[in-house]
Write a structure and sequence with these properties.
A hairpin with a 2-residue loop joins strand 2 (28-32) and strand 3 (35-38). The protein has helices spanning 11-23, 44-56, 65-82, 92-100, 104-115, 119-137, 142-148, 154-165, 169-174; strands at 2-6, 28-32, 35-38, 60-61. The radius of gyration is 18 Å and the shape is globular. By secondary structure, it is α+β, with helices and mostly antiparallel strands.
C-alpha cells in the first residue's frame, strides 16, 4: 500500500517515518521523500492513528490526490536542488512532466492554484537556499557555484540572489550570522518586491 506524506524533505524525516511505522508494527518496502510503500493494507482507524503519530513528528499523511501531486512536485524539486551533487543541467519543466507523468502546463497551473506561487519561483527559492548553503561551506567559489547551480553567469546568480535576499553573495558570505531557511519552509516565505 502506498502512502503519501507531506513535509517529508530530508533523511531525518525518512528516519522519523521509519520509526513511526516500526512502532505501529507496519513493514515498509520503500521509504522515499514524500512517499512510503508498506506491505500491509491498513484500515481507516489504523490510518487515523498513523496520521496522529506522524503529526507528532511534524509530518502529515495526505489523502487528497491534488495535494499528493503538489507534494510530489515539491519533492522532485527538493531532490534535484538539495540532494544532487551533480551540476543541474536539466530542464526542470521537462524533467517534472516526465517524472510525474503529467504535462508541465497542468502541473504548473495546479501548483499555482494550490500554492499561490509558481513552480519557477519555488525552484528559485530552493536554489537560493542551496546557494546560501554552498557559500557557507566555503568549498566552492561563486563561479563554481554558478556553474553547479546551472546559472548562465555569475552576474545572473548574483542578480537573482540579491533580488531574493537583498544581499549580494559576497555580502552574504561576510555576514557573521548567516540566516538560512529550513527546507520545508522554502518557497512559503514572502519574497521582497513579489509577495508584498
Amino acid at each position: 500500500m502506498k502512502l503519501y506524506i507531506k513535509y517529508m524533505v530530508s533523511n531525518r524525516c525518512k528516519l522519523a517515518v521509519k520509526e513511526v511505522l516500526k512502532n505501529r508494527g507496519l513493514h515498509f518496502i520503500v521509504v522515499d521523500l514524500g512517499e512510503v510503500d508498506i506491505m500491509e493494507d491498513i484500515s481507516a482507524e489504523e490510518r487515523e492513528q498513523l496520521k496522529k503519530d506522524l503529526l507528532i513528528s511534524g509530518l502529515e499523511l495526505m489523502d487528497d490526490k491534488r495535494a499528493v501531486l503538489i507534494e510530489k512536485i515539491k519533492t522532485v524539486i527538493i531532490e534535484m536542488v538539495h540532494h544532487t551533487e551533480d551540476e543541474m543541467t536539466i530542464n526542470f519543466s521537462h524533467f517534472l512532466s516526465e517524472k510525474l507523468n503529467h504535462s508541465y502546463t497542468y502541473l504548473a497551473n495546479l501548483f499555482s492554484e494550490i500554492q499561490g506561487t509558481t513552480i519557477e519561483q519555488f525552484i528559485i527559492s530552493h536554489k537560493i537556499e542551496r546557494i546560501k548553503e554552498l557559500i557557507m561551506y566555503d568549498e566552492l567559489n561563486i563561479t563554481e557555484i554558478a556553474w553547479k547551480m546551472n546559472y548562465s553567469s555569475v552576474a545572473h546568480l548574483s542578480n537573482q540572489f540579491k533580488k531574493m535576499t537583498g544581499l549580494t553573495p559576497s555580502h552574504f558570505k561576510q555576514l557573521k550570522n548567516k540566516r538560512r531557511i529550513p527546507i520545508e519552509e522554502v518557497g512559503t516565505e514572502s519574497i521582497p518586491g513579489v509577495n508584498n
